[in-house]
Design goal:
374 residues; alpha+beta; Immunoglobulin-like; 3 domains; 7-stranded antiparallel beta sheet; 5-stranded antiparallel beta sheet; 19 strands
């Protein structure tokens, strides 16, 4: 382990600049290195470029008032910096390591002041969630990587803010997230469970209950309904919305938008979009949909996102499958050719969490689509 830590030091400080391609940044380096402060730091700053590197590491941990705290809105970054500072303060050899990085005058006091400033900032970013608890919007999806996941970030925040109202609020929020998300495949799951189990007895006695009921109704009386979701289908032609009663003709190319609101980030979500028999998909092959990164789309007056998933084209409907589906507003878009004249009706559109099926929604009944021959 000692050899590995010294290798880390050498590669981070042994050249004028660290090798970013395949290497790590200062924030990750100081976080990892602070876990092993007992290993002596033996690198020396000789050249001007090397001294500049030392200043950059120092600025990462104890930024001056003139420079500002930095990391604005970067919740995970602030949490990591706080853990780094705490490790340097509390672990044997931590203060010596901080001094070796250039924090030489009033080392302990400066580290404590930096901790206080970041803790105050983190408390300001916390917001109450509509379903209970507290959370950090800037620490949730799409940052769902091996470490940069919402579970990992919030578990760190629980540890840092332990004893505050926000900490137990975060634990409650984590419990609500676990209800509709699959975490077992990630190391962050262990951190999240540990964070929740460290909560108060009142928190640990919390239970989530689900009730369901089913009934039959005439198709024309089906109303939009949902639990944790809403979904709506709209038609557009040349950018203009097609409203009930507007003429649609054979040969038209129309765009259908499925406007979805989701109350939580959820795993394994399915959207079933039935279509009128007059419509034929422009893209008739099944395949991936969405993007590996966030792309904002304009939908009325609200911004939405296209999550990454799989689109399966069937004879009477299109089904979408998503491993992970983000909270708030998203828009799925599909284009069709109008092929037949007549009066056509389609079933309501549905969205459902396959992981927790009681979270679902359906659109309301829409009047038959009247198609005219040109």
């Amino acid at each position: 382990m000692t050899a590995a830590v010294k290798y880390l030091d050498k590669n981070q400080f042994g050249t004028a600049r660290p090798v970013w391609n395949g290497w790590i940044g200062d924030a990750q380096y100081v976080y990892i290195r602070s876990l092993y402060p007992g290993v002596p730091f033996e690198e020396k700053a000789v050249t001007a470029a090397e001294k500049k590197r030392w200043k950059e590491v120092k600025r990462e941990l104890v930024p001056s008032a003139r420079e500002g705290r930095g990391l604005e809105g970067q919740i995970l970054g602030k949490a990591r910096r706080l853990l780094t500072l705490r490790s340097l303060l509390e672990r044997d050899g931590g203060l010596a390591l901080a001094k070796a990085w250039g924090i030489s005058l009033g080392t302990s006091a400066r580290l404590k002041a930096s901790i206080k400033a970041d803790t105050t900032s983190l408390l300001e970013y916390a917001v109450k969630h509509r379903d209970g608890g507290w959370y950090y919007p800037g620490a949730v999806m799409p940052w769902r990587g091996l470490l940069e996941s919402e579970a990992y970030a919030h578990a760190l925040l629980c540890q840092l803010l332990d004893g505050t109202e926000v900490a137990d609020g975060i634990r409650l929020w984590l419990m609500l997230q676990k209800e509709t998300q699959k975490w077992e495949a990630t190391p962050a799951f262990v951190d999240a469970v540990t964070a929740v189990l460290d909560g108060s007895e009142e928190l640990l006695s919390t239970r989530v209950l689900a009730f369901s009921a089913s009934y039959e109704a005439p198709f024309s009386s089906v109303k939009a309904a949902g639990n944790g979701f809403t979904i709506e289908r709209k038609f557009f032609r040349n950018g203009e919305e097609i409203r009930p009663g507007d003429a649609v003709a054979v040969g038209d190319r129309i765009c259908v938008k499925y406007l979805i609101w989701n109350g939580e980030n959820r795993s394994f979500v399915k959207v079933t979009a039935g279509r009128e028999a007059s419509l034929a998909p422009v893209q008739q092959l099944s395949g991936p949909v969405g993007h590996g990164f966030i792309v904002p789309l304009r939908s009325g007056v609200a911004w939405g996102f296209v999550p990454q998933g799989y689109r399966e084209v069937k004879a009477s409907c299109t089904e979408y499958y998503f491993d992970s589906y983000p909270e708030e507003n998203t828009t799925l878009t599909e284009e069709f050719f109008v092929e037949r004249a007549g009066s056509f009706q389609a079933p309501v559109v549905t969205v459902e969490s396959l992981y927790a099926p009681h979270y679902r929604a359906n659109s309301g009944f829409q009047a038959p689509q009247e198609v005219f021959a040109k």
